[in-house]
């Protein structure tokens, strides 16, 4: 994987592209948002999934370049497709360390000055390995939130600090991890965790997305629990831009 790192240093994001996984809004039964997921079309290795290169770039402190590109690419997609003007939203994955890059934070704030982007861009942040410098973290969160950024806590429940996040930072959404949602109909503890997380998040004024919904029964159970948004293979796999547009035309 040192070779991948070398390739990234040489070519940057040149061969990267995004897929978008639709999310279903339960109240309106509409698809009004999607998660952007990066892929690398490597000249010799084929499509490399993010799980194979993001951790490596995290270690090398290079993810902020990816994040910057993802923001650019998502912004131009929202413009060229007209989805931004229709109020469609896209959530982006940030590596925790990205918020410690002042230049990236300024870049995000600059982008959020566009009213369309302020409505359309959401930021997904994982809790793992994050709160190293709590006061700096708090400042950055506050600064971005004041600029109109909306935050989802990704992989909610898998780290040690989900509840700290909810209580200390201005987060808007909890995204319950697929490891709880995927088997919640056969694993009673997971069902209890999902149900209680939804109730807790709602009491704190957050919305809730459940990810990893793979069948209709799980969707129905989540509807009964008052979940706000669902994402998963049952609704759709991550889609290229063209397929996303086709999917939305069918659905909206
Ligand atoms: O799509 P897939 O299941 O392979 O994604 C695997 C992991 O890669 C997920 O945890 C996802 O959050 C992460 N990931 C996908 N796209 C991006 C991205 O643009 N930036 C960062 N930092 N992580 C991403
Ligand atoms: O870590 P993060 O939550 O960002 O991971 C998102 C990843 O989960 C994406 O790469 C996506 O491909 C994957 N994913 C999305 N929906 C499902 C699903 O229904 N089941 C499973 N197993 N994985 C999913
Ligand atoms: Na994510
Ligand atoms: Mn997740």
TrEMBL record:
Q: Where is the EAL domain?
A: 1-252
Q: What is this protein called?
A: EAL domain, c-di-GMP-specific phosphodiesterase class I (Or its enzymatically inactive variant)
Provenance organism: Vreelandella arcis
